[in-house]
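Cross-check.
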Amino acid sequence: MRVMKSLFGIAPLALLASHSTLMAQVADELAYNGEIGRIFNENCVVCHQEGGIGPMQFETYDQIRPWAPLIQYKVANREMPPYAYDQHIGVQDLIGDWRMEQDDIDKIVAWVNAGSPLGDPEKALPRPDLKDPNEWNFAADLGQPDLIVPSVSMDIPANGNDLWSNHYVSSGLSVDRCIKAVQVKPRGDARAVVHHANSSVEVLKEDGDRERYGMLTEYAMGKWGEQVPEGVCRTLPADAEIRWSIHMFPGGVGATAEGEMIEDNVVEIGLWFHEEGYEVGNEVYKQDLAQYNIQFEGALERNANMVIPPNSHSMTQGFHSFDHPVRIDSFQPHGHLRMNAASFEIFYPETGRTEEISQVSNWSATWHHSHIYEPDSAPLVPTGAVLVLKQWYDNTAENPNNPDPDQWVYGGSRTGDEMSHAWLAVTHLDEEGYDRLVAERKENEQRSLAGND
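Predicted model, tokenized:
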């Protein structure tokens, strides 16, 4: 009888205790004062805070609870966090990837289905570490920029036609420098009205004329910034002048538009540099950022013959190749309000094989992301291989960004027009450097496979 009591008395008590512990762990998982609050603090508060770009604040449970059903919908459909890049297609190892882990998505969905509980009040989470919305995005890792280049100031009215500002400012550099990272940042409320801000580099020749050196960087609404991989140099030359080309849209675009006059609109470039002489004595290849155009069938130049009829869908396609091997370091598709998808592939003529690199099936003009590939995963492109860039356009009422599906849409620079190109950061290799990188990757793959045995 004592044995039976031990089996049927004490063991069930232990089982109940174990079950209670498990249920408590589940309760913590599905409570704001537990895993759910951590997910919000790590993924949402960066934008959804006072003064942030998000239209509502998510700093506390009371702020979040009324929005729970909408949050569940947006998170489950991967519309939030706003990083449109398809899962399970092509390269998935990205720097600055905002996509939420599937496990965290499942927890948010389950939390809302459970009634969005607060959890144990005694286990209240500390307030999230709030980042100044006007702080530089790379400051936490790289410190403040080594150089800040501001545009001239401009007042933007509350409504009216698109505006452009094209002007020069001096970089102030006295020696060549290799760029480590770069970010373009409209000051304060200006972020709602700056459609894009391109900056190119020009140098003065002896006769006093300016000569274009290359692209410095590109900014479009929502872009986080760019990081240049180790071992390559995107150069800002000494005594360079920066040519700003800033497109502004009165009244703003997207959920953060202020709808009022923006005074003293200034856009800044923040630059982080490698140490002086970084490329000297090292095997450093040059990197550049350039615009790769994508045409409608029969078009001979950018935006030419680009016509999207009312209530219709359209597609563009472009092909580009190099007479030397390259590595593609980042991919950023660009369009306006009717564009809704983009893809990047590589075609290898010798084998007839096409490789999928990146796809964005839910693209939006309010978030332009530069998809930066991890250096060990960045596409290595042999001489003669063909980059294939495609973009799709939805000029129907099904497109939530479409202001008027009954309009004919033409290629052009205005917000209501359309564009079709991609920005690619490209490291230009030689055959020796290409072969070395390919060999290094094969060696790393074999080492990884051996480690899994």
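The longest strand covers residues 194-204. Residues 32 and 345 are 42 Å apart (CA to CA). Passed to J.P. for a second look.
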